[in-house]
């Protein structure tokens, strides 16, 4: 990867004397923008390219370059990779299209090219990409017009994009917003170096402060997870634009980069799990990137202070803060009294409305901030000053006062929100302050600083994944309910006591052995939704009721599912009353086994109130998963119902995730419905379970 991002020499294969052509732009950029390494144009038709000595082939170049930039048609590009590998080139950036994004023939060419590179110990970026850049080293191995005239300044933002055009757009917008760029990579078809590899490289780069990403679909789940975990461990915020939310968008993403877009809800969950901030607009992505790149610290607590010259804007910001789960607490009485003493007309609860009086006595802002942080125990603050930022002489007093507050209370971010002239904004930013003109965008940026602080704190969290050493292999075909729950029990998931009976009479005997009340169900690997055919009977309290219900269930099964295999009747103890939950596992095309959680009944079926996590994970992550659903309050003491055993629920989710990860692709689906959650300390048991192994041999 160093050969790609920090080469000492670059060959451009397909180099053109015309600096406007695709093969001419990288030569022009490298030469004109000050790349201090060796540039080797490769063109068999000329001895000079843009004033540099050109060579007929890479094999005839005087030295072996670290990096080759290939700007040739697809078939010629494959030959160029073969020549580079034979010469010992360590990395290549391939602009060429006509590979897997086009058709099967192109995919075969791409696969052959990858095989050649791997045999030669060579890394490939692309094909079908716009290239890479290292701004600090003046390396522009790209043909984007975005660096033809204006270059980004060196800085802490690294950009990784599967889309070349969008990546170029991002680099240009970063420059236009006054931020500095470090590394830039567009991965295209990601035949070798993929999005995750580039993120991991940026995460390990000391000059990178924040990673901006554009993702259409994951190409390697394990590499992506490792890269995101590495970024979190290095405290490098990852701000992501993930497209493909709609069905049409997902289809377009697949045809554009030949990558597989997984379920959008799963991407959302995976990003939360691994500490990625998902932006849903370009403005949001840049606001959050700006805040993370320029803020001296993240927000270490939830308590937000709002200072405003407009009461209405204070309410607007408070509403946005609540939506984003930031706390805007009332200041303590003694703090409010201090503020009233100096600002008699102010609203001092929080938001603090300093009114227009501040214009007459600008030093009151510093006093206000001192009370806010010192007596109010606030973790971060947003200062809304309307049009005050347009007044140059006031800005000097505001800045110097805020600088003293920052020095007195380090580690507490302050965002300044006001209309400003360009030179005024530049002065604030030079002093290390983040400036927004729109107040809700400032609140969202502060929420992102809080999000990353919490995420980074989880990097060292002790959250062991349950160890499951003695799991049986999954069977080749469908299993009945008793067999499914026996497999879950091996993972340590609680199940009700049950017996498989072949006849109604045997069911009656089993019921006496277990004890009443009894639940009776049809046992069949082919009938997944038993209640749909009348295959379930609840609250049976006598031998006669069990015998009669068993006969009726078998009769209905024969009538409504005549082709189903019938293994008999499940005779199960009826679990004590509790709150019903649904636990599930599905195979996501991008992330593999994914665990689902929701509360039973209407919350899942009608409202879709569920959360997801990529398997495996530990109990602490399971608790965060539980906390995400809208019906979370039902697990607490609620309207006379007791608090539920959340520890047991979290343990069951973690164990299910470990079970799913262990079996991997051999598992298609798990459905535990219901899991009955008892009162606190009384555990949780699976009352029903379905396990569907992956079909083998296409059957």
TrEMBL record:
Source superkingdom: Bacteria
The entry sums up its family as follows:
In the N-terminal section; belongs to the acetate CoA ligase alpha subunit family.
Q: What is the lineage of its organism?
A: Bacteria, Pseudomonadati, Pseudomonadota, Alphaproteobacteria, Rhodobacterales
Keywords attached to this Swiss-Prot or TrEMBL record, sorted alphabetically, are: ATP-binding, Ligase, Nucleotide-binding, Tricarboxylic acid cycle
Query: Which Gene Ontology molecular function entries are recorded, alphabetically?
Result: ATP binding; ligase activity; metal ion binding
Entry protein name: Acetate--CoA ligase family protein
The keyword Nucleotide-binding is annotated on this UniProt entry:
yes
- Biological process GO terms, please? tricarboxylic acid cycle
| Record-linked Pfam families | ATP-grasp_5, CoA_binding_2, Succ_CoA_lig
Query: Which Gene3D superfamilies does the protein's record reference?
Result: ATP-grasp fold, A domain, ATP-grasp fold, B domain, NAD(P)-binding Rossmann-like Domain, Succinyl-CoA synthetase domains
Q: Which residues form a coiled coil?
A: none
Domain named ATP-grasp: residues = 485-521
Q: Which PROSITE patterns match?
A: ATP_GRASP
InterPro entries from the UniProt entry: Acyl-CoA_Synth/Transferase, ATP-grasp, ATP_grasp_subdomain_1, CoA-bd, NAD(P)-bd_dom_sf, Succ_CoA_lig_flav_dom, Succinyl-CoA_synth-like
